[in-house]
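Subject: Interface between my chains keeps coming out wrong

I've been trying for a while to get a sensible model of this assembly. When I model each chain on its own everything looks fine, but I need the whole thing in one frame so I can look at the contacts. Pasting all components below, labels as-is. Any help appreciated, I'm running out of ideas.
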Amino acid sequence: MATKGGDRAARAWALITGCAAGRPVAAEHVCWAAGKAVGADGAALSLSTGTGAQALVFATDEIAAGVEELQFSLGEGPGVDAWTYGGASLAEDLESADTAARWPFFAPAAVAAGACAVFAFPLQAGAIRLGTLDLYRAKAGLLSTEQLADALTFADAALEVMLHSAHRGPGSSEVQPFGELGEMRAEVYQAIGMVAVQLDAGLDVAFVRLRARAFTDGVEVADIARRVLSRDLRFGPEDPAGFHADT
Amino acid sequence: MPREELLAQVFVELADTLVADFDVIEFLHLLTERCVQVLEVDAAGLLLTDQADRLQLVAASSEQSRLLELFQLEAEQGPCLDAYATGTLVAVPDLAAETGRWPRFAAAAHERGFAAVHALPMRLRDQVIGALNLFGTAPGGLDASTATLGQAFADVATIGLIGERAAREQALLSQQLQIALNTRVLIEQAKGMLAERGSGSVEEAFAAMRAYARNNNRKLTDVATGVINGDILLHESARTRPPS
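Reply #2:
Try treating it as a single job with all components included. I did that and got this:
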């Protein structure tokens, strides 16, 4: 059943694959597409290195890269907040008194570097947290409700692309079209938890395997999740695509 | 207990939760449980906007999977979506009369034994951030005072969820909504991990985590994180203990 949310995800994916122009989808394509869709002047994607530090994966331009560098070195900024709190951090005017008080070092430095607005979105799904997608504008300005919705959708796409490239399983070298596997609902997240235990792996690996299985079977991810929850389907390390429990 | 007395008790309990270093999911879960008691309905659930076209369940009076499924369906069609879209109370005293309006939702609710539903918007300034849903197993409307109380619960949920600062600043509101929904996702993941480790159900897993959080004075979210990291191993005894 097509939902409005599904349409937005499909539009995002079309833009991303358009940017990829036949090449395998990667961080750079998500950044280019997100920047364009959200009306930003540039975008950057940074991932956590595991030691708490963040590392730049891709930036569309010097200013976007500069915004990331400033946040890494100063330890403050919208991206740092988005990562720390697990929610979007929106700074539509870095020259305002409010943001100057919030990020006393970052705000003036970002403005000097050419970014007067920065919007940061975590790449996350529950306990799975990879990094942030940061968008900037040279001029101050609010994100509209539509732009915010798009930005959140691109952050979800970025999560999928990054997870997939880190944990691609056998027989699924291509990133599955984002948004085509149905909604990520409560039972999907529960099933991800179960599969992580079955595989003795992280939630990130379980996330990729569950979606890969749905893609292979041509069904929605919620269908696979329900079979996992009813213990009709188990995933094992020796059979990464999952096999039927012999009940 | 007379309603006034119960209400006073619930008010004190919710206020206590809010002034403490509270856990947003535990707070909303408690609120939905108290809705059921005070408003004399059979189930309650809160759905929030994810700010990208969808409503998502953040808390329910029972973690029974069949009930959670019904709330999820409400994100696609039904009174909840209408209350969210219009910002007004949507009262459906007799669902059987509304099968044409919401065929899938009416059928699913009927199948689960519900005959009446009321959806109350969670309003903030000129926005609606979600809705509180009340289900009844018998047909019937809410009287005016119950409806007013229900709206008060929806408003308390709103302000408790987003906090005083976020109520004034749009940017913080976005952040708080996303944090709440992501926390719910984290709890779902922990439920799955715990159910698989202990061969129990996800409902039992939730009850075990909640009991552990209460008994050890920990936040539900921290307990769920501990379960995911493997720092908290809940024993079989804790899992079979009924939720307090």
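Reply #3:
Confirming on my end. Residues 145-167 of chain A form the longest helix (23 residues).
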